[in-house]
Design brief:
The complex is a heterodimer of chains A (116) and B (114). Chain A is built from no helices and eleven strands. By secondary structure, chain B is an all-beta fold. Chain B has a single domain, classed as Immunoglobulins (Immunoglobulin-like). Chain B is built from no helices and eleven strands. The chains are: A mainly beta (116), B mainly beta (114). Chains A and B meet through strand 4, strand 5, strand 9 and strand 10 of A and strand 4, strand 5 and strand 10 of B.
């Protein structure tokens, strides 16, 4: 049972255009969402995050939008650059209860290819 | 700062062999994690640790063991390797435990069990 879904395995975009990567989740307890970027033969690196109390977070060329009612988030990259070509993972974290620990649940990833 | 380091980078094991995947971090993070990534899949949490001497199971712990004797090191042990353990293994660490804590990942160990 996949709680975090990235339904597009791959996306191709031309340099300078917008890249939109989508992520859906099913667990209503998730309240913090992160995007990680991964190049081949490297570990994932943190890109941007958003709390459920917001609907948008922006960091330079990267913006994440959250639609809680639809349980959907998206990552926008504008303008896209060839160096953005990588696999992008969506991850979600549940509400921290008491002294518990909240772990991350990852989607399968979307491979973005930005062509010159 | 080297960040999170993992050794070895690659390893081929025969069924039934054992090995230890090493992970070390120099950021003085209390929280450390082991994930596995199967082809075309997301990362799945194997074990995690909230500090030296404290470990707990993640989503897919069967076939693995961990220990955390120091803040810096978090080795992952495979006792009886099986083909189902063929995967890429990532170690990660974070400063905090709360939601959204940024996890820093190592470069991974690619393990093949034949």
């Amino acid at each position: 049972d996949q709680q975090v879904k990235q339904n597009s395995p791959s996306l191709s975009v031309q340099e300078g255009r917008i890249s939109i990567l989508n992520c859906d989740y099913t667990n209503s307890m998730f309240d913090y969402f992160l995007w990680y970027k991964k190049y081949p033969a490297e570990g994932p690196t943190f890109l941007i995050s958003i709390s459920s109390i917001k609907d948008k977070n922006e960091d330079g060329r990267f913006t994440v939008f959250l639609n809680k009612s639809a349980k959907h988030l998206s990552l926008h990259i504008v303008p896209s650059q060839p160096g953005d070509s990588a696999v992008y993972f969506c991850a979600a974290s549940p509400i921290l209860l008491n002294s518990g620990y909240s772990t991350l649940t990852f989607g399968k990833g979307t491979m973005l290819l930005v062509s010159p | 700062n080297a960040g999170v380091t993992q050794t070895p980078k690659f390893r081929i094991l025969k069924i039934g062999q054992s090995m230890t995947l090493q992970c070390a971090q120099d950021m003085n993070h209390n929280y450390m994690y082991w994930y596995r990534q199967d082809p075309g899949m997301g990362l799945k949490l194997i074990y995690y640790s909230v500090g030296a001497g404290i470990t707990d199971k993640g989503e897919v712990p069967n076939g693995y063991n961990v220990s955390r004797s120091t803040t810096e090191d978090f080795p992952l042990r495979l006792e009886l390797a099986a083909p189902s353990q063929t995967s890429v293994y990532f170690c990660a660490s974070s400063e905090d435990r709360g939601p959204g804590n940024e996890q820093f990942f190592g470069p991974g160990t690619r393990l093949t069990v034949l």
